Amino acid sequence: MRNLKILSAVIGIVQIILGLGFLFAPTLMLNSMGIDTPAADINYVLAMLAARFLVYGVGMFAIMRDPLKYRFWIDGMIAIQIIDLGAGIFYTVSGVIAIGASGLAMFNAGMFILLLMLWRPHRQTAVSADA
Asked: How distant, in Å, are the alpha carbons of 6, 8, 53, 119, 121 from that of 2?
């Protein structure tokens, strides 16, 4: 359970950094990922995305305190990462985005999926609080 708590904190920090970046410096975030700067009005959509990063990022710290209680939200993060990985693969393979722009995000998504699935609490571990 300790590994999952640490992983939840790491994911929470990553989500908060992404959220703050896309909220306050969307062009810098896109350019740092190797993505061309789109029209300025896309920043509105990126701000809405940032809200979700920020809320789920903070939520990961609640998950960290009681993973069994928030198992549904762990499953939600697994689903988010699967969608992220699938989108990365699709847009990279179709040539829309270069592997240099998508590689780190896809690696993180794959790693988070694997570790969250391995360390996800099961009902029978409910009695072992801080193993």
From this structure: 6, 10, 23, 9, 11
The pLDDT value recorded for residue 123 is 75
Q: How far apart are CA 44 and CA 127, in angstroms?
A: 45
Q: Locate tokens 């708590």: which residue?
A: 5
Please report, for residues 28, 43, 96, 105, the alpha-carbon distance to residue 15 in angstroms, rounded to integers and kept in the order given: 17, 18, 24, 12
Task: Show the low-confidence residues of the chain (pLDDT under 70).
Answer: 124-131
Residue 33 identity (one-letter amino acid): M
Segment 90-124, tens digit of pLDDT: 999 999 999 999 999 999 999 999 999 999 998 76
- The Cα 126–Cα 69 span in angstroms is 9
Domain range summary for the chain, segments of one domain joined by +? 2-123
CB atoms within 10 A of CB 48: 11
pLDDT for residue 129: 52
For position 125, what pLDDT does the model report?
52
